[in-house]
């Protein structure tokens, strides 16, 4: 299955910055887990690298891995990084999400 997941340059830059301070780590893992006020939420972790069955997205010198269970929820998504006065965070622009909560942390399909 081709995930067609896009990684923005801003997200890649932030991933590289984080990994520079994490010896032995080589990727950002993005997962979809149950929870939040809308049913699903994104989980971000710094990991050594991909595990068997992971989808690997490489762009702008950074690597993102997505597990098999999360992949269908992220098809066609763009992973970006937002750096504003209000927040510094990874943001997933997900065409599969039919709604999201007011704080933007959780979503429904």
Could you give a quick summary of the protein structure above?
The protein has 109 residues and is mainly beta. The chain has a single domain (6-108), classed as Sandwich (Hypothetical Protein Aq_1857, Chain: A).
Describe this structure in words.
- The protein is mainly β and 109 residues long.
- It has a single domain (6-108), classed as Hypothetical Protein Aq_1857, Chain: A, CATH 2.60.300.12.
- Helix content is 15%, strand content 41%.
- It contains two helices and nine strands.
- It has a six-stranded mixed β-sheet with strand order 4-5-2-3-9-8. It has a three-stranded mixed β-sheet with strand order 1-6-7.
- It is globular, with a radius of gyration of 13 Å.
- The protein starts with 5 loop residues before the first strand and ends with a strand.
- 24% of the residues are buried.
- The mean pLDDT is 85.
List the main descriptive attributes of the protein structure presented here.
single chain, 109 residues, mainly beta, Hypothetical Protein Aq_1857, Chain: A, six-stranded mixed sheet, three-stranded mixed sheet, 2 helices, 9 strands, 15% helix
The end-to-end span amounts to 19 Å
Low-pLDDT stretches: none
What series of H and E elements makes up the topology? EHEEEEHEEEE
Q: CATH class, anyone?
A: Mainly Beta
**Beta-strand residue percentage:** 35-45%
Discrete helix count:
2
Q: If you average the pLDDT, what whole number results?
A: 85
The CATH topology assignment is: Hypothetical Protein Aq_1857, Chain: A
Number of strands: 9
Based on the coordinates given, report the CATH architecture. Sandwich
Which structural class fits the helix and strand makeup?
A: mainly beta
Under CATH, the homologous superfamily reads HesB-like domain
Globally, the shape reads globular
* Spatial extent as radius of gyration: 13 Å
Largest sheet: 6 strands, mixed
**Fraction of residues in H or I helices:** 10-25%
Q: How many domains make up the 3D coordinates? A: 1
């Amino acid at each position: 299955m081709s995930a067609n997941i896009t990684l923005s340059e801003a997200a890649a830059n932030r991933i590289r910055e984080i990994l520079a301070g994490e010896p032995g780590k080589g990727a950002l893992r993005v997962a979809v887990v149950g929870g939040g006020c809308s049913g699903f939420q994104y989980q971000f972790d710094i990991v050594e690298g991909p595990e068997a069955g992971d989808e690997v997205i490489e762009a702008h010198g950074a690597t993102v891995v997505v597990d098999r269970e999360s992949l269908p929820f992220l098809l066609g998504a763009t992973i970006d990084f937002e750096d504003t006065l209000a927040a510094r965070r990874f943001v997933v622009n997900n065409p599969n999400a039919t709604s999201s909560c007011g704080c933007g942390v959780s979503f429904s399909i």
